[in-house]
Amino acid sequence: MPITPKYTWSESASEVVVSVPLRGAKAADVDVFAADVFLKINFKPYLLALDLHGEVDDIQCRASATGGTLSVRLPKTTHGKWGRLTFDGDAKGRRAESLKRKQEQEEQLREKRRDRRIQDERTALRQMMSIEETERRAIEDLKEDEKQRAEEDMYATFERLRAEKAKVVVDRK
């Protein structure tokens, strides 16, 4: 059964800061999960689950571990003092809704990342095709130039041979 760790919190009009002593746990072993009205900090054997009094911007939440203490900065969505950290009321339903919103938000972010990756791949493919087209045209231009020079050389040779033949015919007369 997880143990609830001791924690402290402070607030300003724009953010809430929750601090938890790590009690020998490594920062890499700490799991922090933040939703708009819920914060969970987990490191064995401790679990801190807080239903927050107000809403926070879970995308902008930042956690840092210094001096054996984990500090989680939670920017408030609506500025103002809460006066208390946790919610009094039906936290179960509120938490479930918060987790559902977080899941939908994560899915939207995954879709955006997937769409961005696909768009980046398409852009890279178009750039590669453009480069290949430029190279192909350069090769075709070189071939055309070579063909043109070969034709000019051939016609010059024919003209020279015709002139030599005409000279031989004139010399025989």
UniProtKB/TrEMBL annotation:
Pfam families: SHQ1-like_CS
Name assigned to this protein: CS domain-containing protein
Gene Ontology biological process: cilium movement; inner dynein arm assembly; outer dynein arm assembly
Ranges where the CS domain occurs: 2-86
Gene3D superfamilies: 2.60.40.790
Stretch list, region Disordered: 93-130
PANTHER family: DYNEIN ASSEMBLY FACTOR 4, AXONEMAL, DYNEIN AXONEMAL ASSEMBLY FACTOR 4
InterPro entries cross-referenced by the UniProt entry: CS_dom (IPR007052), Dynein_assembly_factor_4 (IPR052004), HSP20-like_chaperone (IPR008978), SHQ1-like_CS (IPR048696)
Compositional bias segments (type: Basic and acidic residues): 93-124
